[in-house]
Amino acid sequence: MPDALRQSERLPNGGRKAPHRARRYLSGYLTTLKALDLVLVTSAVLVAYVTRFGLDEQSVGGLSIGYGYVALGLVVAWVLSLNIQRAYDGRTVGHGVQEYRQVFQGSTWVFAVLAILGFAFQIEFARGFVLLAYPLGTLLLLTGRWGARRWLVARRKSGELSDRVILVGDADHVAGLVGALRRAPDAGYQVLGACVDDATGEVAGVPVLGPESDVLLKAFEHHVDVVAVSSSAGLGTTGLRQLGWALEATDIDLVVAPGIMDVAGPRVLTRPVQGLPLIHVEAPRFVGPERVLKNVMDRLAALAVTLLLGPVMLAVALAVKIEDRGPVLFRQERVGQDGRSFSMFKFRSMVLDAEERLADLTASNEGAGPLFKMQHDPRVTKVGAFIRRYSLDELPQLLNVLRGEMSLVGPRPPLPREVAEYAEDTHRRLLVRPGMTGLWQISGRSDLSWDEAVRLDLYYVENWNPILDLMIMWRTARVVVSTDSGAY
After folding, report:
1. DSSP per residue over 49-106, as a string?
2. Can you list the domains of the chain with their CATH numbers?
């Protein structure tokens, strides 16, 4: 590859000050985000002040400073802390948990410093004021960020407010990157093209702009925001370093995609050794205190949901019984953790002889892989179609969770005939308990391809954490009431 620095000599102004949009497309959104956070923080502090002190001005214990000044200082410090924690970094907004983590850390640091100052200088701050302002402000900030993210994600799914990206690498790896970025439009990466040496025309629907050696020229020519280099790129250590040097005086970000796929951030640790960034990947953990905690929380939550939705479950049971006087529950053998079979409960949504009629419908199968699915299955009853539409038929699985056979969140529980057709890698789905919901359900459900469903389940198995469970359960509630959830 030609020297990356030498390429910059052929660019306008040597490639040093080429015109570029520099994520200016996000400046309006980020400015609005700052204004929103300021309003929310001010509101939280004001509510805490009025709740604790009313409209009367009071002084801090042992000092002649009024709490009005403390409240003003707290607002300023809070906003400053959010900026220090990079809560307005355009590279993290819209996708992943990092954005929420930055907001939470910014809030926590403010009150941690306040507590340290109070202890160090023996200042008696009103506890009621602090104990209300912190959780209220943090909750408002996270809620506001969630609402703003919904708006941003909607724009990004329509092709707006996204980084313009050029990919670099061989055709196979570039195709993999294209697929990954297309699966996450909320991340804000719009692939314009690729620079590859072993293909021409298109790769995975993306135009090939030229060989890898032309990446810098093409980046300026197409006014991109990001150059993403895969692990297969032929730049080499020297070429990649020179490309970084050529881009450092521009507004173009350099992103390096390692060869490891479907590994979540908490399992990845980057450790530089003599200038070489070594990536440590922790092995997934299937036993230990966290798994015990998940089991306990699953059962407590299942019990709470059962008590809360008891009237709904009773109404569904009556509707199923009245329609054809048949049994209310349907039991089916499924394969659980470590290949152990169990009886999974569901509200019956099909006619009584549904299993006997399955063989006659095999030719009409619309499911992927070993799955059998029909969008308009003639065996489904009228009540069954309704409860399937809103996933009410799956509520009896709460009993399976209470019995320890299933989890609230996990891979889809497979049938024995499906497991018999599993590839070797797919058996890793059975390392954990199957779930009532999972990544497969919030990502398309019946509309997913078999390979994509397996990929999502394996990602969950190897990258489970409590935050991921909460995210899946939150999104499950939204998917269930959605008009295009892919449930049938």
Report:
1. HHHHHTTS--BPBTSS-BHHHHHHHHHHHHHHHHHHTTTT-TTTTTSSSHHHHHHHHH
2. 4-22+162-281 (3.40.50.20), 24-157 (no CATH), 289-480 (no CATH)
Neighbour-count burial of 422, counting CB atoms closer than 10 A to its CB (0-12 exposed, 13-18 middle, 19+ buried)? middle
Task: Give yes or no for a contact between 418 and 457, defined as CB atoms under 8 angstroms apart.
Answer: no
User: Residues 449, 368: contact at Cβ < 8 Å?
Assistant: yes
* pTM beyond 0.70, yes or no: yes
Q: Which long-range contacts (CB under 8 A, 24 or more apart) does 245-251 make?
A: 245/4, 245/5, 246/4, 246/5, 246/7, 246/8, 246/15, 246/216, 247/216, 247/219, 249/15, 249/16, 249/17, 250/15, 250/16, 250/18, 250/20, 250/220, 251/20, 251/21, 251/22, 251/23, 251/225
Torsions phi, psi for 81 (to 5 deg)? -65, -40
pLDDT tens-digit profile of 98-156?
Answer: 899 899 999 999 999 988 887 787 777 777 888 899 999 999 999 999 999 999 999 99
Distance CA 320, CA 424 (A): 40
Q: Are 395 and 312 in contact (CB under 8 A)?
A: yes
- Enumerate residues 6+ apart whose C-beta is below 8 A from 407: 294, 295, 298, 401, 432, 433, 434, 435, 436
Among residues 376, 385, 379, the alpha carbon closest in space to that of 316 is found at 385
| Contacting residues for 443 by C-beta, under 8 A, at least 6 apart | 452, 456
CA distances from 37 to 33, 48, 103 (A): 6, 16, 10
- List, for residues 336-360, the tens digit of each pLDDT value: 999 999 999 999 999 888 777 877 7
Q: Which residue has the tokens 């009071």?
A: 58
CA distance 169 to 482: 39
Cα–Cα distance measured from residue 199 to residue 479, given in angstroms and rounded to the nearest whole number? 40
